[in-house]
């Protein structure tokens, strides 16, 4: 459904990479019936088009002793929204920022090494953002389902 803009061969390659992004060009070629060189060219073209954005290692902060993960829902007055978003964007504890529906709202995820670091983010960064009209914070206790990127 999401891959309709790709030809059949690229769809097969993308599906294989979603299953295992570390699969070699040779392995992919064997599975889809083309050469390693052709696979490499197709993957590079998908990367250049922005279809494939990145390959990454995802760390589960809950498996690291003491790590704290929180989601914040923040609402701002319109004139301060851009400045606040930029301030959050520059903070290393903040891992994700999404503009969501509602009046000038941001959904922000942060991962801190300790409760003290999270408290510092809240008191020294979030509480001092200009024009905050509402803020809620939820600590993540456990992951039940966490899908990264597009799943087919």
TrEMBL record:
A Pfam short name: HTH_AsnC-type
Gene3D superfamilies found in the cross-reference section: 3.30.70.920, Winged helix-like DNA-binding domain superfamily/Winged helix DNA-binding domain
Domain HTH asnC-type span(s) in chain numbering: 6-68
Keywords: DNA-binding, Transcription, Transcription regulation
InterPro entries (UniProt xref): ArsR-like_HTH, AsnC-type_HTH_dom, Dimeric_a/b-barrel, Tscrpt_reg_AsnC-like, Tscrpt_reg_AsnC/Lrp_C, Tscrpt_reg_HTH_AsnC-type_CS, WH-like_DNA-bd_sf, WH_DNA-bd_sf
One CC-aspect GO term: cytosol
A molecular function (GO) term: sequence-specific DNA binding
SUPFAM superfamilies, A to Z: Dimeric alpha+beta barrel, Winged helix' DNA-binding domain
Keyword Transport: no
Gene Ontology biological process terms from the UniProt entry: response to amino acid
Protein name: Lrp/AsnC family transcriptional regulator
Organism (species): Candidatus Fusicatenibacter merdavium
């Amino acid at each position: 459904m999401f891959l309709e803009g790709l030809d059949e061969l690229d769809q097969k390659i993308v599906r294989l990479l979603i299953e295992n992004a570390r699969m070699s060009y040779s392995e992919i070629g064997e599975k889809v019936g083309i050469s390693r060189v052709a696979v490499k060219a197709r993957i590079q073209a998908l990367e250049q088009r922005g279809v494939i954005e990145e390959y990454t290692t995802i760390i589960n902060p809950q498996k690291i002793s003491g790590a704290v993960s929180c989601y914040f829902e923040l609402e701002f007055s319109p004139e301060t929204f851009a400045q606040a978003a930029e301030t959050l964007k520059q903070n290393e504890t903040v891992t994700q920022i999404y503009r969501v529906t509602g009046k000038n709202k941001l959904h922000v995820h942060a991962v801190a090494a300790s409760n003290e670091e999270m408290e510092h983010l809240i008191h020294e960064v979030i509480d001092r953002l200009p024009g905050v009209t509402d803020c809620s914070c939820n600590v993540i206790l456990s992951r039940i389902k966490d899908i990264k990127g597009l799943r087919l």
